[in-house]
Amino acid sequence: MTYCVGLSLDDGLVFASDSRTNAGVDYVTTYSKMHVFTPSPDRLFVILSAGNLATTQEVINHIQRDLDYPSGGPNLANVRYLFEAAEYVGAVSLSVQKEHNMALSQSGVSGETTLLIGGQIAGQPHGLMLIYPQGNYITSSPETPYLQIGESKYGKPALDRIVHPGLSLNQGARLALVSLDATTRSNITVGPPFEVATYEKDSLVLGCRCRFDADDQYLIALRDAWNNGIQEGFRNLPKFSWEQPAKKAAQAANKEPAPTGPVPVPNT
C-alpha cells in the first residue's frame, strides 16, 4: 500500500507521495510513486500512483513508449485538454489491467492501480484528476481542492480542517507533508522517503521536487512542531462547566468546613 495526495490551489498544484512498497511483512522496498512528463514546452504532467507496482510500471512504460514512438493515437504530447490526458492514461491503465487480469485473479493478487494526474497545457487552466482502476476519473474542485489515493484515511483529518484553494504552494507542501507523516504513525505500509513537488500555474515547469528521508532534519522538525501544536491545542480546550473556578467555589461554600487545629480527645 502507499499514500499519495495532490492539492489544486489558486496558485498552482502540490504533489506528495511516499515511497514504500510491501510484498509481505519481511519484504519492504522503495520505489518512487511520482512520475513527471514534459513531452513538449507547452505542457507538464505529474502522475502519482498507488496499487499494484508491476501494473503501475507497465502503465508508465506504455505512456513513455507512446511519446517516443507515436502511432497516430492520443498521447500526452497531442492531447488538447487535461481531461483528455486523464482519459488517455485511464485507457492505458485499463488495457494493462485487462491483459493480466486472469492470471492475477487466479493467483489471488489484485492488479489494480489508481492514479492521480495533474498539470497544465498552455492556454488551459491547471488541474488535478483522480483516475480509478476502471479507467474513469473525477476532478478536484474549489469545494474539494485535494485528492488522495492509497491509504488515505489517516492523512485526511488534517486536510479537511486546513486545506482551501487560497493556501500558498509552500503552505500546501507543508500540509501535504504533515498528512503523509500522520499516515505513517498509524499505518506501517506507508513510510519515507517522502517526495513533495510544487507547480506554479502557467510556469509549465516544476518549481521544486524534494525528497525527505526518515532522518531528514526538516521532516523531524515539522513532525515535532505539529505534534507539539496538537498537544498545546488539547491543553487549551475549554473546560467543562464543573471545572470552572466559580462553580468550584459555590460547591465549596455548600460544604461543612473541615476541622482545623487540635482534635479534642474525649474524657474517659
Tally of discrete structural domains: 1
Strand content: 25-35%
> What is the averaged pLDDT score?
88
Annotation field: number of helices: 6
Given this structure, which CATH class is correct? Alpha Beta
Helical content class: 25-40%
Order of helices and strands: EEEEEEHHEEEEHHEEHH
Structural class: alpha+beta
Radius of gyration: 26 Å
- CATH fold category name: Glutamine Phosphoribosylpyrophosphate, subunit 1, domain 1
- State the end-to-end distance: 81 Å
What CATH architecture would you give? 4-Layer Sandwich
The rough form would be described as elongated
Strand order of the main beta sheet, please?
10-1-2-11-12
Low-confidence stretches: none
The main sheet comes to: 5 strands, antiparallel
CATH H-tier superfamily: Aminohydrolase, N-terminal nucleophile (Ntn) domain
Secondary structure tally: strands? 12
Structure report:
The chain is α+β, with helices and mostly antiparallel strands and 268 residues long. The relative contact order is 0.18. The longest helix has 25 residues. Helices cover 34% and strands 26% of the residues. The strands form three sheets. A five-stranded antiparallel sheet has the order 10-1-2-11-12, with helices on one face. The protein has a five-stranded antiparallel sheet with strand order 5-6-7-8-9, with helices on one face. A two-stranded antiparallel sheet has the order 3-4. The chain has one domain: 4-Layer Sandwich (Glutamine Phosphoribosylpyrophosphate, subunit 1, domain 1). The mean pLDDT is 88. It has six helices and twelve strands. Strand 11 and strand 12 form a beta hairpin. Helix 1 crosses helix 2, helix 3 runs antiparallel to helix 4 and helix 4 crosses helix 5.
